[in-house]
């Protein structure tokens, strides 16, 4: 199937590649992610002391799925397995430590959101479960419970899938349609939608993802590859999933890529 067959013109590949170039993210040591880490590391070390094993960029930045516009910087804080504090206490004491030094802090389920200069930063504190694994336990503030996950597994799965370009376009589409669609969930959905898809055209692959979202997306079950009992698709309500379906269905009726994503 060609771009023309999809009714959206022959310039889809050029158009989408131009968007990707515009939205390219700085990954150097002068980048926003590393600047935020440098600014926050003293605060984090003061809070956690020698229990802090590492503070590392994670999320979209580490996976190669970030866009220059509308992307938070994710920093994962790994605490030593010997940490005796409970997960709720870890989360709340970090909240207090950030607030005490002047940050306005937002509770965002497993993360704490702050603004460092012009940069939105999501801090995710986690306690390593044992020295033999990189699995971590995270506090989930919305449900006042905990979950097990592995941030490095998420990074490895997304990088190995090689769907960064398609994911970045769909993230822009999500943001421009003001949809509630967590990035981790979105990334795994794009990978699922493009399983065994060997199309040479970026436009065709993005179109395939939109068709996947438009076609009963609400019924698709997505689980955490690092923890089969963590159902990522449960993070959205049925109404939020149906909003994604409707937005994708509308996009499929458009005649130009400029009407779909910009």
Write the layout of secondary structure elements.
Blueprint: H1 12-22, H2 32-48, E1 52-58, H3 59-63, E2 73-79, H4 87-100, E3 106-108, E4 111-116, E5 119-128, E6 136-140, E7 145-149, H5 151-161, H6 164-176, H7 183-193, H8 202-214, E8 223-224, E9 227-231, H9 238-251
Parallel strand pairs: 2-5
Antiparallel strand pairs: 1-2, 3-4, 4-5, 5-6, 6-7, 8-9
Helix pairs in contact: 2-4, 6-7, 6-8, 8-9
How does this model look, in words?
By secondary structure, the chain is of the alpha+beta class. It has two domains: 117 residues, Poly(a)-polymerase, middle domain (Orthogonal Bundle), CATH 1.10.1410; 118 residues, 2-Layer Sandwich (Beta Polymerase, domain 2). Helix content is 42%, strand content 19%. Strands 1, 2, 3, 4, 5, 6 and 7 form a seven-stranded mixed sheet that branches. A two-stranded antiparallel sheet has the order 8-9. Helix 6 crosses helix 8. InterPro entries: NT_sf (IPR043519).
Structural class: alpha+beta
Count of DSSP-assigned helices: 9
Rg calculated over all Cα atoms: 19 Å
- CATH top level label of the largest domain: Alpha Beta
- Total strands: the figure is 9
Task: Note the main sheet.
Answer: 7 strands, mixed
Protein name: Nucleotidyltransferase
InterPro entries: NT_sf
């Amino acid at each position: 199937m060609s771009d023309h067959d999809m009714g959206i013109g022959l310039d889809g590949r050029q158009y989408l590649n131009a968007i990707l170039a515009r939205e390219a993210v700085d990954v150097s040591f002068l980048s926003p992610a590393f600047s935020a880490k440098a600014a926050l590391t003293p605060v984090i070390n003061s809070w956690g002391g020698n229990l802090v094993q590492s503070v590392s960029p994670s999320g979209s930045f580490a996976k190669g799925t970030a866009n220059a516009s509308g992307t938070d910087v994710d920093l994962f804080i790994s605490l030593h397995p010997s940490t005796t504090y409970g997960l709720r206490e870890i989360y709340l004491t970090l909240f207090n430590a950030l607030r005490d030094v002047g940050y306005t802090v937002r509770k965002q389920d497993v993360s704490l959101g702050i603004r460092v200069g012009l940069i939105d930063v999501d801090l995710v504190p986690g306690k390593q479960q044992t020295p033999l694994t990189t699995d971590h336990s995270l506090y989930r503030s919305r449900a006042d419970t905990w979950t097990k996950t592995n941030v490095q597994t998420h990074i490895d799965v997304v990088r190995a899938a090689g769907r960064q370009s398609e994911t970045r376009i769909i993230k822009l589409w999500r943001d421009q349609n003001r949809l509630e669609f967590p990035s981790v969930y979105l990334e795994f959905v794009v990978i699922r939608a493009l399983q065994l898809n060997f199309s040479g055209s970026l436009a065709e692959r993005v179109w395939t993802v939109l068709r996947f979202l438009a076609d009963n997306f609400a019924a698709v079950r997505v689980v955490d590859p690092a923890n089969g009992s963590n159902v990522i698709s449960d993070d959205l309500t049925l109404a939020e999933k149906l909003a994604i379906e409707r937005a994708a269905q509308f996009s499929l009726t458009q005649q130009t890529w400029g009407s779909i994503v910009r």
